[in-house]
Amino acid sequence: MKPLLEIESLRAGYGAINVLWDVSLTVEAGKTTVIVGPNGAGKTTLLRAVMGLIPVEGGDIRVDGASRRGAKTWDTVASGIVMIPEGRMIFPDMTVEDNLMMGAFPRGCRRDWKRNKEMVFEMFPRLVERRHQIAGTLSGGEAQMLAIGRGLMEQPRVCLIDEPSLGLAPVVVDEIFRILGRLRDQGMTIVLVEQNTSRALKIADQVYLMQSGKVVMSERGDRVDLDRLHALYFAHETAA
Ligand SMILES: Nc1ncnc2c1ncn2[C@@H]1O[C@H](COP(=O)(O)OP(=O)(O)OP(=O)(O)O)[C@@H](O)[C@H]1O
């Protein structure tokens, strides 16, 4: 069976600035793939390229074995790939419920929106109490829950989640990772970019370490040698 998502020899960046050099990785259906690496390694850029938010200059992105290189973001979302971006990017002037409704549009999930909303509310009871609250007034943790919930409204096949624990208090980080673990147990395919390496490794089926726009380590989650990971992680800073 073909992997759900394959990235092969990907090259991408921002205009004249190339960031990703020959990046290859594989995302298996129902698994959690964790991408770690120091600041500026190109993790977010990789997710953006997969979503069609920046052009691909070389290599390929395949879903179920079929190339999606050059696909527009809207079509990528419609194919079942969603990104829950760093910084949440919720609509601050809309209510919690309206933010969720926006999530149901791109994949044409409007018909199922009530059912999906109840599923999100069941997962995040805190959002129920705040359903009519303006999203811009939510706490950081609640905003992250809303961002994840909005992504789930698409009934995605793959969730790309960028730095969900960024700037959150430890108790809220616990809650976010509990939810990610639950999604994983339910069979969701997750690609998680996370600075909190120790937490992310606990839910990882496969781990990729990126460094300066390249994959420098790939290992099964239960076989990661932490000393080697840390040595490679900090190699760049040490050399600098
Ligand atoms: N819009 C942009 N225009 C030009 N360069 C950019 C842009 N966005 C990011 N970059 C550069 O691309 C490189 C990779 O950035 P990226 O955000 O992908 O790294 P990252 O691994 O996600 O880092 P972090 O963990 O800090 O979020 C960095 O050198 C960054 O300055």
UniProtKB/TrEMBL annotation:
The lineage of its organism: Bacteria, Pseudomonadati, Pseudomonadota, Alphaproteobacteria, Rhodospirillales. This is Branched-chain amino acid ABC transporter ATP-binding protein. It holds the Pfam family ABC_tran. The keyword S-adenosyl-L-methionine does not apply. InterPro entries: AAA+_ATPase (IPR003593), ABC_transporter-like_ATP-bd (IPR003439), ABC_transporter-like_CS (IPR017871), BCAA_Transport_ATP-bd_LivF (IPR052156), P-loop_NTPase (IPR027417). Residues 5-237 form the ABC transporter domain. SMART domains: AAA. One of its GO terms (molecular function) is ATP hydrolysis activity. Keywords: Amino-acid transport, ATP-binding, Nucleotide-binding, Transport. Belongs to the ABC transporter superfamily. The keyword Ribonucleoprotein does not apply. GO terms for biological process: L-amino acid transport. It comes from the Bacteria.
